[in-house]
Amino acid sequence: MDKQQELYAGKAKSVYTTDDPDRLILHFRDDTSAFDGERMESLERKGKVNNRFNAFIMEKLQEAGIPTHYERLLSDTECVVKKLDMLPVECVIRNIAAGGLVKRLGVEEGSDLAPPTFELFLKNDALHDPMVNEALAETFGWATAEQLAEMKSLTYRVNDVLKQLFAAGDLLLVDYKLEFGLFHGGIVLGDEFSPDGCRLWDANTREKLDKDRFRQGLGGVIEAYEEVGKRIGVDFS
User: Fold this and answer.
1) Is 128 exposed, middle or buried (0-12, 13-18, 19+ CB in 10 A)?
2) Does the predicted TM-score (pTM) go above 0.85?
3) Phi then psi for 19, rounded to 5 degrees?
4) DSSP state for residue 72 in the 8-state scheme
5) Is the domain 87-220 a CATH 3.90.550.10 member?
6) How many degrees, rounded to 5, is the angle at CA 36 between CA 41 and CA 155?
7) What gap in Å lies between CA 115 and CA 216, rounded to an integer?
8) In angstroms, what CA-CA distances link 11 with 14, 27, 39, 99, 160?
9) Which CATH number, 3.30.200.20, 3.40.190.10, 3.40.50.360, 3.10.580.10, labels domain 3-82?
10) Domain residues of the chain, as ranges?
11) Using one digit for the tens of pLDDT, what is the confidence trace for 70-80?
12) Using CA atoms in the order 33, 15, 119, 131, what is the torsion angle rounded to 10 degrees?
């Protein structure tokens, strides 16, 4: 497969076209950002760690019957994915109160949420990814009612799979975001799943082992990502 021109460069990944119109190459860079790109740094090994972490998670989800765009690793920092027509909303599941939920509602960080909450956010950096609802998404044509229902169902199925996976490594899956797109008309999980887009705490100490270490200046960001990966069986070699 031939890597061709850069199609898009995000905050931490670049996307390239290939000689196959249905396939893209994702390049995971060492860049790290927070607060809608207001803070940016390069962290050594991050691209490799997130690429391999994402591959491991996507393969686990595929084994559970969840359709993803991931196909195979290409190198330490690149993988091949299906080319999706991305839907402009993010799906968020919260199992434990943290982050934006705590700020919005004034609830105590660390409170268990039963049942887990489901939220939608519009992908729009200029508007700081505002929270929306399914009616707004349908009204403005961001997704159909049927697509939204499928995205919600898949997001909860991901929760069932990953809560169990992380629990086996003495980890709590606090919350996470997912992005979906269309591939030949079907809803497919896209983007990535790594500690950049979720919150993971040690189950015993509740130490933060995710991107909050970067946001809050706690240090040891990549070491924490690697610790999480090793606990669940990710091979970083």
Assistant:
1) exposed
2) yes
3) -75, -5
4) E
5) no
6) 105
7) 28
8) 8, 11, 11, 20, 29
9) 3.30.200.20
10) 3-82, 87-220
11) 999 999 999 99
12) 60
